[in-house]
Design a protein that fits this description.
The chain is an alpha/beta fold. It has nine helices and 14 strands. The N and C termini lie far apart (39 Å). It binds zinc ion and fe (iii) ion.
Length: 242
């Protein structure tokens, strides 16, 4: 069973360290910076053997070069964004398998936030690293894609087993939850979760990872019945100040 450590960096990013005790391999998912990642790995006696990137944005790849130089690790990321992730060793597409020791990760193409965005789904661990696609109670902005793509991405992720843990790359849950409460004012599960998130954030606690089941109940973007409905929600959230 893989061991996962959350490393908060920059203003609201989470970098994930995943360690497979059986093989001794350690992967860093979306290292926006290198320093805190290398320090955390060293403190645990873990040697970073891989980087997995979900998309090219600097807050997810800015630490690639330094982590690679310090550890000699292999960098895996989306084929469609290869020229925008300069330290890439392996370019992957939909359906490709990436291994952490004996653990398999399936590559899912989930374009919309960026045109080549991917997610890594680890069925044996019941978890997925989803970058900036699905957030707790929200979804990524549509920088290089459209609402139709995001709608189908979220529907695919929502069809993973309900207990699947979703590791997203930002702590946006409080703002997302406040928006969700305005989008679905009658949804008691949203109001209840928002209260829990407010308490957690006031106590300085993280609200990620989430689960597929929680998102099905409380995420208006996952619950959106159509691409048009998602487009309207996304526009409203882009202008929401809560
Ligand atoms: Zn991004
Ligand atoms: Fe990001």
């Amino acid at each position: 069973m893989v061991e996962i450590v959350r490393i908060p960096v920059l203003s609201d990013n989470y970098v994930w360290l995943a360690h497979d005790p059986a093989s001794g391999e350690t992967v860093v998912v979306d290292p926006g910076v290198a320093g805190p990642v290398l320090a955390e790995a060293e403190a645990r006696g873990w040697r970073v053997s891989q980087i997995w990137n979900t998309h090219w944005h600097a807050d997810h790849t800015g630490g690639n070069a330094e982590v690679k130089a310090a550890t000699g690790c292999t960098v895996t990321g989306p084929d469609a964004e290869a020229e925008r992730i300069p330290t890439l060793d392996r370019q992957v597409r939909e359906g490709d398998l990436v291994r952490l020791g004996g653990i398999e990760a399936q590559v899912m193409e989930v374009p919309a936030h960026t045109s080549g965005h991917i997610a890594f789904y680890l069925p044996s661990e019941a978890l997925a690293f989803v970058g900036d696609t699905l957030f707790a109670m929200g979804c990524g902005r549509l920088f290089e894609g459209n609402a139709g793509q995001m709608h189908s991405n979220l529907q695919r992720l929502a069809q993973l087993p309900p207990e699947t843990r979703i590791y997203c790359a930002h702590e946006y849950t409080l703002s997302n939850g406040r928006f969700a409460a305005t989008a679905e004012p009658e949804n008691a599960a949203i109001l209840q979760r928002l209260a829990a998130v407010e308490a957690a954030r006031a106590a300085g606690e993280a609200t990620v990872p989430t689960t597929v089941a929680e998102e099905l109940a409380t995420n208006p973007f996952v619950r959106a019945p159509s691409a048009d409905a998602l487009a309207e929600l996304r526009r409203a959230k882009d202008n929401f100040r809560g």
